[in-house]
Every structure is written in structure tokens, then in C-alpha cells.
Design a protein that fits this description.
This protein is an all-alpha fold. The chain is built from four helices and no strands. The longest helix has 24 residues. The protein is extended. The model has no long low-confidence stretch (mean pLDDT 79).
Amino acid sequence: MLHAFSRRYVAFTFEGIYVKHMCESVPMTSWGRVYYTNAMSSVPLLVIALFLNEQQTILNLHWGFEVCMCVCPPVIVRVY
């Protein structure tokens, strides 16, 4: 048990230091980092959504006022 904890501790510490180094050494704006992270994470999310048949859930959703008020403003703000 202690051995597994120590491996995780070392891995998380290394990952934190490495990410900090990469964020400081790669010339990128904060918005660029956000867009890059979102673009990289959207690919596996789309694959998972296709395997879990989420498109049927979205198509069967009742697009009422409440749903539109939750979904539409972030989309509009992101586009402009």
C-alpha cells in the first residue's frame, strides 16, 4: 500500500512540475492554452459520445426555453 502511494506521489509531483515548465516555456497566451486544451479534449469526448449513443439523447431532448437559455448564451459568446 505504501509503495503504491509513493509511486502516485512521485508521478503527480513530476506531472505538476512538468506541466508548470511547459506552460512557462511554450510561448502561448492564456486563451491559446484554453483553446488548445479544449480542442485536445473534444476528440476523445466525441468518440465516447458516439459509442454511448449520446446523439439520440440530444435529438430526443425537448428544446424548451430553459434548455436554450443554458445552451445558447455560451455558444453565442464563444463565437463572437
